[in-house]
Amino acid sequence: MYYLTAGESHGPQLTAIIEGLPAGLKIDIDEVNRALHQRQGGFGRGDRQKIESDQVEIVGGVRHQVTLGGPVALVVKNRDHGNWGEIMSPTAPETAENSQRKLERPRPGHADLVGGMKYRHRDLRNVLERSSARETTLRVALGNIAQQFLRQLDIDLIAYVAQVGQVAADSEKPLDVSEIREKIFQNDMHVIDQDKVEPIHRLITETKEKGDTLGGIIRLVANGLPAGLGSYVSWDTKLDAKLAAAAVGVNAMKGVSFGDGFELGTKFGSQVMDQIDWEKGTGFSRLSDHLGGFEGGMTNGMPLVMNVAMKPIPTLYQPLQTVDINTKEKHLAGIERSDTTSIVAASLVIQSVIALELAKAICEQFESSSLERLQEELRRYRQECREY
């Protein structure tokens, strides 16, 4: 399974193609659009979300709501392109009039300066437009399709906000996806601890008034994964490594851990190894889940638990020092539309990219041309593992 996205933040549209979905998967387009709407929510979002009202259009690979087995193509139109038509035109030649909004003062923490150096851009808008988190719109759409696919295999996952800035909101750490989903959708921060919503709102409001931004920590839990996804035989076949790469491939993500995470490095082995149990009918299990559902780069049948650290958004309304790439004079960085925090949206993006990697791992391990055949193979494999 492989996917590719194309498009710029203020370009005409965002486009994606995913190859490798099995034939016979029914896609609920309304659910995909609900996920896109959810991506635009959360306390602390900026004005861009008021402009866009994302709706996905499937333009290939699906007939009568069911995948055909070939590449699936998706499109999301950028409504804000109407205000940028000449500036972001793919076909019009560059003129003095349509290049008025050049970016020549790179923002600290963004891809602006390094991207300009690498690709020899003198207008850093060429970097900004593609490195924008706007691109994650289509990864959420693709990720929702992957989640619909996984549910057909009795696999479910959810990501939520565990911390914003210094405010932790996960005193409980449930491992049941349904329980987590019920709790986090009771508030607009998608946190487990309901009593932390108001302190987080207050922190975001105070941070916005200062022209600053916030990051936080996202936690993801997946239930129903069979033991043995991934492999121990080579470094590049370990599934936890692939999931970590997918998470860090999302804008602003700077750290990943599994299970108890970095706390594992401070404890004795006797405190963190998940002891093995066995029961007739259900087979092997673990008495705890400190390692987050992974051993040797493979799923072990326990809930998968990931923690992902998101840095504060780099665009500040109290801008930091930068240097003009042409004059080399010191200035304050330019200001583009920005959020105080987008961690709620980011949790959905993490959920989406991990769903895509898990779907890919399933399709690599089992014959996946047909959803029905894949379901049969997976049922047999799970039974074999129970009887091992």
TrEMBL record:
Reduced FMN (FMNH(2)). Pathway: Metabolic intermediate biosynthesis; chorismate biosynthesis; chorismate from D-erythrose 4-phosphate and phosphoenolpyruvate: step 7/7. FMN binds at residues 130-132, 251-252, 296, 311-315, 337. The keyword NADP applies. SUPFAM superfamilies: Chorismate synthase, AroC. InterPro entries: Chorismate_synth (IPR000453), Chorismate_synth_AroC_sf (IPR035904), Chorismate_synthase_CS (IPR020541). NADP(+) binds at residues 39, 45. The keyword Flavoprotein applies. Residues 85-114 are annotated as: Disordered. Residues 99-110 have a biased composition (Basic and acidic residues). Its cofactor is FMNH2. Gene3D superfamilies: Chorismate synthase AroC. It catalyses: 5-O-(1-carboxyvinyl)-3-phosphoshikimate = chorismate + phosphate. This reaction introduces a second double bond into the aromatic ring system. Homotetramer. This is Chorismate synthase. It comes from Lactobacillus nasalidis.
